[in-house]
Amino acid sequence: MRQRSKGSAQSKPSSIPETSNSEDTVVLVAKRSKYVILALFVLVTYGTWSVYQHQFLNLPKPLGAEEVGKRGFSEHEAIKHVKALTQLGPHPVGSDALDHALQYVLQATETIKEKAHWEVDVELDLFHAKSGANLMVGGLFKGKTLVYSDLNHVVLRISPKYAPEATENAILVSSHIDTVFSAEGAGDCSSCVAVMLELARGVSQWAHGFKSAVIFLFNTGEEEGLNGAHSFITQHPWSDTVTMAIDLEAMGVGGKSGIFQAGPQPWAIENFALAAKYPSGQIVAQDVFKSGAIKSATDFQVYQELAGLSGLDFAYADNTAVYHTKNDKLKLLKPGSLQHLGENMLAFLLKVATSAHLPKGKATDSRGKSDQDTAIYFDILGTYMVVFRQRFARMLYNSVILQSILIWTTSLFMGGYSAMVSLALSSLSLILMWICAIGFSLLVAFVLPLVSSSPIPFVSSPWLVVGLFGAPAVLGAFTGQHVGYLILVKYLTKTFSRRNVNLSFVVQDDLAKLDAERWLFKAGLMQWLVLLIMGNFYKIGSSYLALVWLASPAFAYGLLEATLSPARLPKPLKTVTLLIGLSVPFLLSSGIIIHLVATLIGSAVRLERSPGSNPEWLGNIIIAVLIAAIACLTLVYLLSYIHISGAKVPLITVTCILFGISLAMVQLGVVPPFTEDTARAVNVVHVVDMRGANGKKQEPVSRISLFSATPGNLIKEVEQIGEGFVCGTDEPLDFVTFSVKYGCWSDKNANIGWHELDIPLIHVENDTKGDNRVTHVSIDTKVSTRWTLGINTDEIEDFQLKDGTEELVPIGDKSNADGWHIIQFSGGKKAPRKFSLTLFWANNHTHKSQKKDSNIEQPLLKLRTDVDRITSPTETVLKKLPRWCSLFGKSTSPLTLAFLSSLSIDF
């Protein structure tokens, strides 16, 4: 037999046939140039970053009013609104600044009304929402009831003057004016409000040709639990006419505003893809958001679940580390950000508002479920958006899966026992690759807190993760795969020695190496096939990525490499096979991967929802595992090319050097973990604690509490602040909605800045004992219109909350979380402060509620009232707070002054 190898020029195989009358001898050298591998890594790195830049960083030019005329969108005009709103400072619910922000938006909408096209009706409503309760139980709402009162919204409806039927079929565009108490809100969400105002100005010049009205809702109360959207849907008369909802949000400052939730009806996303000038949206983001990995919610959840509407949810997601901190400011808003969203939205509204096919009716049932054929969507380089429906996706995925299984079955049947063993051993190389990649990265995750001043030293410089976690992950992936490769080569050498006894041992060894390389490449196909099967079974939208990572390399391999003949001797894989096979997968996934990792790194600033509850290395582990998984998934094909090349030593050397430099920079403090623009989330709360009173006379205990939602101790911060702070886990604090197990506290001057008349009261009015025990409790929150109440559901079966004679929370099934149901209340200045609570005890109550793993008895009720007041000792601490720290706000966190009270079970 004569076999001549014809490998690619880049691979540089040699095949020297030596002929004689008796037998032919084949000489093969299994070797690939290290420079080819180097070029491939450079190409992958440069190409990946280029895709990310074009897809997420390439923003349009901001336009002025003269350039766009009356009907276009101008960022220069929109940015004026952002400046005006941010100059007011933080404007949370109940603040004077929010009243000023509402007046500004109201005046801006009145100007739009005055200048609207003469054939367009512009109706303006300053809507005052009465008290209400959000009883949704999904996601973050499990175990909670969100109660609100005295909220004001600006509602603008634009419709054609001579088509009154259009007002019965409206498109809602919504965002919120209010901010958290710690941020001026340039991104979240003054940028959204500014875009809406400029959109409304443009739409007011186009609407005479509309078949549907457009309602712009500028709501308040979103930051306190989506209360603005809830009050509009449940109380405003125009809400019944809405058939589609568009929500604008921000999880950072600027950049491209992309769709991260769509549906359930696919009509909106399909038309957006057709109309948008700069389409941006990824179903990957929707999958991540709905998985609960990101602990957040938007008004879109209210529109979907409560109102049964379909639509789109947009969000700015650049620089997520500044979310809800002082750094959510105008100077970090990138030029072109508003232009990008504004032009996309204007084109979309013009298309759907003039359409006669706008879907009508409920998109979801009362549980937020839908039987719609949902859409799968993604953009390509921010230029073109692909949208197809789930039904088509399942057909496509099933077809590819069946064909793949058929090809694998045929290949294994023809290859026989040897092929099955080779597949098993190549699968072993995959397992070893994952184990080593994750293992190497996890080792770094555990080491970092020991050598760095912060457990997450990469937040202000996200590129550090390339060296800290990326380099170990790549090294681990290659090490694991190489061990599997050596085992596979050993087996294949024996196989070739039995089949080709006339070949020399050297040739048999080289043939085994070449065949092992091919099996490793095909193992990558098997990896993605398994993921596609799983994604298809669970109907995961982002399964299209598994499809392209399977189909494209498989096509290239089948076109250039594959043979079903088991007798044919293997050849080196062609470099062009890799280039063709990976071009489409990297094009579609590179930008998404980098953006996802950047978002996760930014979110590490607020990882600790209950400070001190998790080990310091937890955030590192999450990022380490993610990066290791990305390395194993995306580099599996490329790594298979290295084993017969001279690139093994350079690869190990480069990854070790990269890791060493990154670790040294962290250890020596060359790159600070936080900066003034990327700050650590730290909260300073003046706490007045009356939990031990239980209705008896007791002197209140007051102190200044310092805690952080960012992993790591506060020693460095406390050293700079001074003021007698002591840190540790000795005095945990229960803030009702979360607990602080590690924090710092000081009682220096803590007795000033508040008055005993500010302390809330919980009083038992009457208690009817027996099998159906009922207790009536009065609650007076005194100066606070923002409070949280925990009700012990181990003892209490149901409850009713009233504001005087008005029922706020009715009797009925209540969800609970960890044995508690939480009422969160927020309202304006005129919100009530006195409430009556009726408690219906469980028939089998034992009065033995205890903390898990503790002998401490739990109270029946626990109350925290918040006051947006900076006392003099708090002000002193805030002035000395390091510049790399920032207060962090969320709906469940206390303001700068908090009163704690409780009611024992045995009152």
Structure, described:
The chain is an alpha+beta fold and about 900 residues long. It contains 20 helices and 29 strands. The strands form six sheets. Strands 4, 5, 14, 15, 16, 19, 22, 25, 27, 28 and 29 form an eleven-stranded mixed β-sheet that branches. The protein has a seven-stranded mixed β-sheet with strand order 3-6-8-7-9-11-10, with helices on both faces. The protein has a five-stranded antiparallel β-sheet with strand order 20-21-26-23-24, with no helix packed on it.
Write down the CATH class of the largest domain: Alpha Beta
Q: Determine the mean pLDDT.
A: 92
In DSSP terms (H or I, runs of 4 or more residues), the helix count works out at: 20
**Measured on Cα atoms, how large is the radius of gyration?**
31 Å
Biggest sheet statistics: 11 strands, mixed
Proportion of residues in helical segments: 40-55%
Proportion in β-strands:
15-25%
Question: What is the third-level CATH name, the topology of the largest domain?
Answer: Aminopeptidase
Number of strands: 29
GO molecular function, one term: metalloexopeptidase activity
Organism: Nicotiana tabacum (Common tobacco)
Cofactor: Zn(2+)
Membrane topology: Multi-pass membrane protein
